[in-house]
Model the fold of this input.
Amino acid sequence: MPIEFKKNRAVFRDEVSVEEAEGLLEWLQGKPTASADLSALSHLHTANLQVLMAAKTGISSWPKNAELRAWLEPALNSGE
Amino acid sequence: MKRVLIVDDAATVRMYHRSILESAGYAVEEAWNGIEALEKALDVPFDLYVVDINMPKLDGFGFLRELRQQPIPQQPAIMVSTEAEERDEKAAYQSGANCYLIKPVRQSQLLSHVRLLLGEAIQ
Amino acid sequence: MSPSTKRPLPPNPLLEQFLSEARDLLENTGKKLMQLEEAPDDQEILNELFRGVHTLKGNSGLFTFPEMTRVLHAGEDLLGMVRSGHSTYSRELADRLLDAMDYVGALCGEIETTGEIDASRTAESQQMTEALRKLMPNPISSVDKVAAAGSNGESANSAVPSADDPGYRPSPLGSIPEAVRMAAIEQSRHGDQLHWIVYRPQRECFFHGDDPLNGARQTPGLIWGRVLACEPLPSLAELDTYSCLLGFDLLTNAPREELDQYYRYLPDQVEIAAVRPSWLMNEREEEERPSKASSTASRARSFSDDDEAAFDRILAAQRQILLLEDRPVWHAGRLRSVAEVLANLSQAVGETSARADIEVALEEALSTGHNTLLMAWLDGHKDLMLEAGLPCSEVAKNGISAVHVESIANIGSFLESDPGKLATDDGVKFGRRAEDASSGPRSLKVDQAKIDRLMNLIGELVVEKNALPYLAQRAEVQFGNRELSREIKGNYSVINRIADEMQDAIMQVRMMAVSFVFQRFPRLVRDISRKLGKEVQLVLEGEQTEADKNIIESLADPLIHIVRNSLDHGLETPEVRRACGKPETGKLTIRAAQQADRVVIEIIDDGKGIDPAVIKRKAYERGLIDEVTLERIGDQEAVNLIFAAGLSTAEVVSDLSGRGVGMDVVRSAVEKINGTVVIESELGKGTTIRISLPLSMAVTQVMIIESDGQLFGVPMDNVVETVRVPRSAIRAIKQSLTAVLRGRIVPLKSLNTLLGIPTVPRPNSDDELAILLVQTGSEVFGLMVDGFKETIGLIQKPLNGFLSGLSAYSGSALLGDGSVLMILNVREIV
Done:
């Protein structure tokens, strides 16, 4: 499963596609304090990124993939 | 000699602008509403337009919009008005004006703008 | 010949134009105000009113007439309020506006004579303004507006963006990590062309299977990129997962073709621009690089403040235009004009090579619909001013590294959030927006003097042509050349026709509608009826009826007099009318119509009428009629006695219509222009005054008669018949001579006697006397003369100077042989 929903953390792995976005949104709605673990992420569909940005979810671990991290970190780190 | 078209329904204002422009060496023609102005613009090429807003038949905005659709060289247009709100200026640009001045325009101010818009060397 | 008036001032064409236009505007405004009384909600009238006052105010602003501008300003504001519904129409409002217009008219009069407004007018101007402003709810302080009106476009210092500003956002290129930036600079220095990409996916792109983040990551030659929200993301509850609100900015060193190829399926979601190395650099680095700036600094010129302000302003304006997001049909034309302006600006500062670059940028903008390159050029060339030595606005100087690079990024939203950043000048703000209104048909304005000159020339032509028949005669009689005579006659008839047509044409030009006179009546009636406490409804008919200018102008005074009389003595007060069983509001009709070659004007009121008995008695008392007439005279005839001099039926002399004795003045004024006036009246019902006037003072047909060797002219209007009566048929009854002609007794008068010539009429060889039957009004009598000559048409000129006291003559004219013909005033000589 691309996103594993633990008690208060969503763990992202490999490639997370567009189908996950709805589920992610609903879960985050119910867990406003949850965080996201992106360490094992290799790609994230834009829709999911959008959800994370909208929810302003705290990130517990950044992707190991440096290039991906370079994209995601500025966007998810409070940003503008 | 550069040709300027003055578009305004008040004869006094037309005369005022004409005297300033003619003494600076421009050839001036007049129109007193947007329709007239359009006919003249299509007839002979002008290098610059000085356009009032409030006119019967077709106002300044309407004239500019039409002008900007014509298959002629699109030359600079100064819109003159008594309204100094930002939204009026924006409306002027939207319709196709390149510059927006408040009436009455001082002679030196008008001439500076005209010269620059026509690409004449600044003295 | 029109008399030339010597003005005490040098002619000022602009001022004259202003005054001329002001007259028209004031006239129309007055008219509209009267119309508004009948229809206070008519939006069209309100609009026209507003526009008129607005234009007048604008025109006055070209001069220094603060007293006038102030009042007009207040009037404009007031009308603006009524027009927008914030203020309601009331009689008081109308009165104050009318007063204000009268005041402005008076000022114009003063300006016309002395060239300026007297200082004593200032107080009045304040009062007028106050009076108008008081009628406005929450009156806008005029002080602010006047103060604002004083300044005009002086550029204010534009806001300087700095990191401390709350709205300040670092530019996207400015947020490139240092290392990346340096590397990028290096790359570009080595000749790599860097590109900046603005990728804004469509909202529905997910449905097309797009994953923009993926696309961005895979962009060839990617050096750096970032994600951003194109608009503030909504809360989770409102977020539409499948609507893409994110955007991407990318810096890449891939060649343009490759990028185009990569993004070939998304051309309208992507903007690609070539990056200039300077955009990556900050100020310090900028200075260090070998730039053109230093070498061209020597080109620095000094520019006037106006030039500088104009340059900034124009540049800022083009920028604003490029930022417009609408894409109307005329967008392309708009862009072209901007390109032209930018090219011209460059040319003005000596950068003639810029035109080519701008052309390229323009093509880009036209084909892609995005103004990226034009904006980039504009911002990138703010240093144009530096190079040319122009001092540039604060924004440009400080923002070279930051602001200008934003041109290719999301400038739109960036600037929308903080418009102060734009280098716009002057914060003059007004609160209104004038609107369009229709105005009447335009016509050519011709100076009165020019028309008069034409008239005179044509008049001379008409006279001169009359010489040709004489010539023809001489040719035949004196020189025995019948051929020539015939030819002259032939030519004469052609010239005659043309001259007549020209005559007609110029008369047409001089034709004027009676509305010229009528238009003052609504106001007049309103004012007078109010003063007298009477309710009057004025009906004007046939306003477009035309007559010669002179006639129309001569009509004004008599008409006013008649109307005043009607209002004063004819129409009753509402109480009296009610008691008589009449409607409380009296009706006054002024009607004009053309009948054949005359214009008939009628003034009809439904007032109390004229009492013939009173008139008769008064006339008798004054000795104007004798007892016999008193007995015999009919009612209508009696009523017309009112025209007799010295008769006054007014018991009370009111200041409005003088002594009520003006009717004789009216009659003589009317007769002076060859008109007639009669009265019809019915006691208790009303009075009708009918004026009949000739259409034009054109060519008069005149019969030339001879008496005592002198020639005189008698207008054909007055001529009934020419007869020759044997001397034996002439009888003397009492002191007068008479003859029986056509079954009636006709009194005879010798013209010589009438003119004081001591000769008797000369009979012809058959012992017959030449008698010209003439009529004046209803009288017919025979004028004994020596002989009749031809009838010709000529233009009668009134007698001027001391000759005008000769009532026997109505005018004079020039004959073909140069002699002067005196034209008899048949009515007067009897």
Q: What stands out?
A: Chains B and A do not touch (no CB pair under 8 Å). The first strand of chain B starts at residue 3 and ends at 7. The longest helix of chain B spans residues 11-23.
